[in-house]
Automatic annotation (TrEMBL):
Residues in Diphosphomevalonate decarboxylase-like N-terminal domain copies: 19-175
PANTHER family recorded: DIPHOSPHOMEVALONATE DECARBOXYLASE
EC numbers, comma separated: 4.1.1.33
UniProt name for this protein: diphosphomevalonate decarboxylase
């Protein structure tokens, strides 16, 4: 059953939401159905606190086209995906209004920091609220997945598992919370080594890997064991066990991509030096491990007591432009109108 749409004085249907990017510890790479964004393997992630996307959505009666801005500028690169996402919501609500979408990130966009995850989670959440769609979080997760795979996880906060599912229609490929952010409050230091958009996006990278990498079958065959190890480590708050399986999953994903034709190299020199620095810290007894998604930014996950030491070590690496600091955060939620452009 739908709620009443959030109509403004002009008849616009309006809502604003915030969502955070998530960092996969057990990686998602590869699709069993590209049209529905169904993953070939399951994944486990943590939702960040300090990084965010804020999105304002207004459905305007009589408007034919969607008008989209990102960080105050017209958005063309993602406009088709955003309109396709809005279409899913419009179909559910039975309206054909064009939308005005204003979105803002407080971190580099399309640079390996999961901006599409937070972006589409915020878009689905705000769009559903504006149209009065009474969608459960699980239903929002499924819709967000249709728009950007990893966005399924950013609907939730804390530790999240996204099932690859078995059904052809994808209704069982949904994320679910494993553990709340406050239940095991780890910290994440994000070493920014480039602010440029990556040359090969994740969708193309996954397609190329599936078609050409000789390691694809091994990646799929070993994923369930990794998920089980990570799930047990999270529920037991076993940092060392989580560190081992997370770094293993990270390096295995990048090995898979490196073996594609042509090979996918998402790292730069500073990324590799940061890996060495994190491993050196752990050998010294510092509770920290690294993970890297499809981009050059390294994420160092640590116990709260180690965060200052970890940040200082990463800042000392040549080529590191900045180090962001974040705890674990909430899932998608409502925010006040007007906050997006502030």
């Amino acid at each position: 059953m739908n709620r009443e749409p959030r109509a403004g004085a002009s008849g616009e249907l309006h809502a604003a939401s915030q969502a955070q990017p998530n960092i996969a510890l057990i990686k998602y790479w590869g699709k069993r159905d590209a049209a529905l964004n169904l993953p070939v393997v399951g994944s486990i992630s943590i939702t960040l606190e300090s990084l965010w996307t804020r999105t304002d959505v207004r459905f305007v009666p009589g408007q034919k086209q969607d008008r989209i801005t990102l960080n105050g500028r017209g958005e063309e690169a993602e406009s088709r995906r955003i309109t396709a996402c809005l279409d899913l919501l419009r179909q559910r609500a039975g309206v054909d209004y064009g939308a005005r979408v204003a979105s803002r990130n407080n971190f580099p966009t399309a640079a390996g920091l999961a901006s599409s995850a937070s972006g589409f989670a915020a878009l689905v959440h705000a769009g559903a609220q504006a149209l009065g769609l009474a969608l459960s979080l699980a239903e929002q997760s499924v819709l967000a997945r249709r728009c950007s795979g990893s966005a399924a996880r950013s609907i939730f906060g804390g530790y999240v598992e996204w099932a690859h599912g078995q059904l052809a229609d994808g209704t069982d490929s949904v994320a679910r919370p494993l553990l709340g952010a406050d239940a095991w409050p780890l910290r994440v230091a994000v070493a920014i080594t480039s602010t440029a958009a990556k040359q090969v996006g994740s969708t193309e990278g996954m397609r190329r890997t599936a078609q050409t990498s000789p390691y694809q079958s091994a990646w799929i065959d070993t994923q369930e064991a990794d998920l089980s190890r990570a799930r047990e480590a999270i529920l037991a708050r076993d940092f060392e066990a989580l560190a081992q399986v997370s770094e293993y999953s990270c390096l295995k994903m990048h090995a898979l991509a490196l073996a594609a034709q042509p090979g996918l190299l998402y790292w730069n020199g500073a990324t590799v030096e940061c890996m060495h620095r994190v491993r050196a810290l752990r050998q010294q007894g510092v509770p920290v491990f690294f993970t890297v998604d499809a981009g050059p930014q390294l994420k160092a996950v640590c116990l709260p007591s180690a965060i200052e030491q970890v940040k200082a070590a990463l800042r000392d690496v040549p080529g590191v432009l900045d180090v962001l600091d974040s705890g674990l955060g909430e899932g998608a939620r409502n925010i006040a109108a007007g906050v997006v452009e502030a």
